[in-house]
Amino acid sequence: MGKLLSLLARDDSNCCSPQKYDVFLDFENAQPTESEKDVYEEVEKVMLSAENILEELGMYKGAGREIREAITTPNEDHVRRAWVTVLPLVTKLKSFYDFSLELEAIVPKILGELCSGAMTPTQHLETQQALVKQFAEILEFVLKFDEYKMKTPAIQNDFSYYRRTVNRMRMCSRDQEDSMPSAPDVSVEVANRMSLFYAHATPMLKVLSEATSRFVQENSEIPIENTTETLSTMAKV
């Protein structure tokens, strides 16, 4: 988020230099206006979980050893140990995915505030600093989440093992199924969506990109240039 200050440091001493943004930024004291307050508070509520999610993802260890043992020596003890180890991890992965849905819902709302009206991107930056700060925090979260995810291949391995085990449990006898701890409350449809989410190299960036595309498509009354120029400015944040 601090890179937003780089907007103030560009040299426009010649005609070929990028535009200089002469804006005073005061994120420490930025407060939403009355008209922005509802969106600001909604975004703030969602982003309260962001730091904890990054912390949990950064410490994600996976169940690789237990899964390997269950596959190479599939006796009851190894299979049960792998399953018990994977269950809380899947619960975490579900919470990360659920957060992506919340992010997907708030992005169009904050873009609506930052892209609508007659103001230029620079004017939005100057007069709506509380929302600009929040959008910068969203971008920062997205980049960090995807960075951690790319460094954690265990995520897809764990979830793949979970799905295979759930499928086997559905086909086994009731007695065998009852001998294993219950799976988290993840429907087949949600599991499919989670699998697609984690299969992407940068899942949160994909969510952000798709939410932005939908915002543009569903708000045709807002000139597309307003959105692209605002995002171009924010990309230099």
TrEMBL record:
InterPro entries membership: CYRI, CYRIA/CYRIB_Rac1-bd
Membrane topology: Lipid-anchor
A GO CC term assigned to this protein in UniProt: membrane
Pfam families (UniProt xref): CYRIA-B_Rac1-bd (PF07159)
Recorded family membership: Belongs to the CYRI family.
Main location, first listed in the record: membrane
Superkingdom classification of source: Eukaryota
Domain spans labelled CYRIA/CYRIB Rac1 binding: 22-237
GO terms of biological process kind: regulation of actin filament polymerization
Organism encoding this protein: Laodelphax striatellus
Subcellular location: Membrane
Protein name: CYRIA/CYRIB Rac1 binding domain-containing protein
GO molecular function, one term: small GTPase binding
UniProt KW keywords: Lipoprotein, Membrane
